[in-house]
Amino acid sequence: MRPMDSPILQDKPPLGQILVADDSPVFRDMLQKMLLEWGYETIAVSDGRQAWDLLRQENGPRLALLDWMMPGMEGAEVCRQVRAGVRDRYVYMILLSVRAGLDDVVTGIESGADDYIVKPFEVDELHARVRAGRRVLALQEELVEAREALRDQATRDGLTGLWNRTAIFDILQNELARSGRSGEPLIVLMADLDGFKPVNDRFGHMAGDAVLRQVAARMRAAVRRYDAVGRYGGEEFLIVLPRCERVGGLALAERIRHAIGAECFRAGDVEIRLTCSLGAACARPPVVPLADDLVREADAALYRAKHQGRDRVEGAAGG
Ligand SMILES: [Mg+2]
Questions:
Q1: Helix ranges, 65-204 (H)
Q2: Is 233 exposed, middle or buried, given 0-12, 13-18 or 19+ CB atoms closer than 10 A?
Q3: Would you call 235 a catalytic residue per the annotation?
Q4: Ligand 1 center to residue 70 CA distance, Å?
Q5: Which of 61, 159, 219, 238 has the fewest CB atoms within 10 Å, measured from its CB?
Q6: Residues with beta carbon < 5 A to ion ligand 1?
Q7: Is the pLDDT of residue 102 over 50?
Q8: Which band of pLDDT confidence, cut at 50, 70 and 90, is reported for residue 13?
Q9: Contact 25/61 with Cβ under 8 angstroms?
Q10: Which of 74, 77, 175, 235 is catalytic?
């Protein structure tokens, strides 16, 4: 068992570690032994204050057995604090008390406890209630994962994993607002693959998709960590470069152009050479253009790049 004065959290508790908080050493040991026997990892403290200190930590225990009567802070008060202050995860709390009256149970549950066990209790009852708590936590974990997957689906382009059109446009709007506040310029690049359609016609859509995925990977590798790359249309990409001057933006555009054109793409056993044209537009605070207008400027520059022979970078007329 761990020393009472220095409880140590595991680096990354799975659903795992169950917190036992009880001021009675005999009861504490008994609870820990039972939990260990049932295959749970435990961490034990002897008062409510220590329990709260552990539960409030990021990645702290997810399930807690809390004695009601403890020095420092009562179990019910720990429940209240956790409900008010712990936001990064759901903590399932079971209050243990000799107080068996209906009022006590109601007060306990209203303090934020999920369950209430009257001491003394049957061993099987405790086991069943701990298992119930773990089921609730496991379900909650699944919900969080499902929500994150949905959010990902809503913002990512399914084929390339880049931001989708809506998301990259949102990012541009946010970055423009930030640029207005910070006074730092911003560059938007519109990129379009040259002669991509024949790839689909000649080699099939599977090959076309493979090329698009590789294009996306090369673009992502070419930009800076805080730049955002989105798929704007079929073979068209919108790239947002925050905190970037015109010269730096054009250099980055050249880097992308080179990353696409320098080496062949592979689809199965065919090698496909492609190039890319890019148009750049710059937002210079304090004048911050609308996202729509900036994209239109970059698009016009791209159009010129196409007309001047493709495989090249053009800056917008105004800058
Ligand atoms: Mg007690």
A1: 75-85, 102-110, 123-155, 165-182, 197-203
A2: exposed
A3: yes
A4: 5
A5: 159
A6: 23, 67, 69
A7: yes
A8: very low
A9: no
A10: 235
Judging by beta carbons within 10 Å of its beta carbon (0-12, 13-18, 19+), is residue 6 exposed, middle or buried?
A: exposed
What are the tens digits of pLDDT across the range 250-282? 999 999 999 999 999 999 889 999 999 999 999
Give per-residue pLDDT as tens, 28-72: 999 999 999 999 999 999 999 999 999 999 889 999 999 999 998
Sign of CA dihedral 94, 96, 102, 104: negative
Q: How far is the CA of 34 from the centre of ligand 1 (A)?
A: 18
Ligand 1 centroid vs 21 CA: distance in angstroms?
A: 9
- Give the chain's domains with CATH numbers: 18-152 (3.40.50.2300), 165-315 (3.30.70.270)
- Ligand 1 center–CA 231 separation, angstroms: 60
Whether the model pTM is above 0.85: no
Cα 24 to ligand 1 centroid, rounded to whole Å: 6
* pLDDT tens digits for range 79-100: 999 999 998 889 999 999 988 7
Tokens of 28: 């504490």
Sorting pLDDT into bands at 50, 70 and 90, what band is 14?
A: low
Distance between CA atoms of 178 and 209, rounded to whole angstroms? 35
Q: How far is the CA of 201 from the centre of ligand 1 (A)?
A: 76
